[in-house]
Structure formats: C-alpha cells, structure tokens
Design a protein that fits this description.
alpha/beta; 196 residues; 4-stranded parallel beta sheet
Amino acid sequence: MEKFTIYKGTTVPLMNDNIDTDQILPKQFLKLIDKKGFGKYLMYAWRYLDDQYTEDPDFIFNKPEYRKATILITGDNFGAGSSREHAAWALADYGFKVVIAGSFGDIHYNNELNNGMLPIVQPLEVRQQLASLKPTDPVTVDLEEQKIISPVGEFRFEIDQDWKHKLLNGLDDIGITLQYEDLIASYEKNRPAYWQ
C-alpha cells in the first residue's frame, strides 16, 4: 500500500445523504475481481444516461471543472448497505484519495482505509464550507497533523491511531505481519518438534 502523509488535491461536492454501496458501484459490476477498472462504473446510475455510457452532463462528476477532483465531499451515512469492497475499489480507481462525510457505513469506512484512502468525518458546517470551494481551489490533507487546510479554513479530524500508523507507513494487514517476520521465523524454528 502507498504511504499517505500529506495529500494535496481539489474537491468535488456530492452532498447527498445515505449514498449506499449499490449507488457507489451497482451489483452488475461485482463480477470483476481485479481492483482496476472499476472507476468507469462509479456512481453508474447517476453518471450515465443509458447503457452506452452516455454521460449525464448535469451530474457533477461529468462537469469538466470537476473531472480531476480527488477529494470527495459528501453527506451522512456514506457507504451504507452491503459490505462490497468493490465500492472502495471504484472510488480509488476513479482517483479519490480522501472522502469527507458526516458519517460512514462501518464496513465501507474500513474498506476505504484498507485500500489506502482516507475517510474523514466532519460536521455539516465544515462540509458545507468545503463544498463551496471553487473546483481549482487547493486543499491539503495532513494526516500526521490530522488537519484539512483549505482557502475556507483549517479543520482538525480524528482517526484511530492504528489506522494512522498503517497509512503513514503504507502498511496493510500483510505488511503489519511482515514487520514481525524475524520473530515469527524464530518462533517456528524453536518450537518443539511435535508441532512440526
């Protein structure tokens, strides 16, 4: 997993509440097992007018000024519903590195973290300020200092310290285990023969 320390990007506001994992990535795209290629299907029912991928020009992701946004500002209960990790894959493959919401579905929150993204919880007032930014306004997310720096202000955020450690060091669960590789090898070498 890539290290996440300080991230600079631009925002796109999608302030709907209760965006569930089926809206993030519909079920018909769950057959794919590679993490790449899901960005095309992100918010499929909203982004496209038909099955031929004709873009809806009124949907904010399709507006030219927001196409390169990598920080999503959204509503409450983002990622509710089923536990499909594919939804986090779609967000990451589309290019999002940070999602700022009022709250998250528990499993989806962890799926974002497990895929190197940073989900941040902020109150409505802060999200409304961030949603008012121009598409070109720079936003910095400093994980070490746990703050969002933007033209409309600086905002602190909370994160579990174990997750913070994993992201800062680019460690997934396997990476954490490999930190103890020498201890594991020593234990296996020295355990009694009847266990071998």
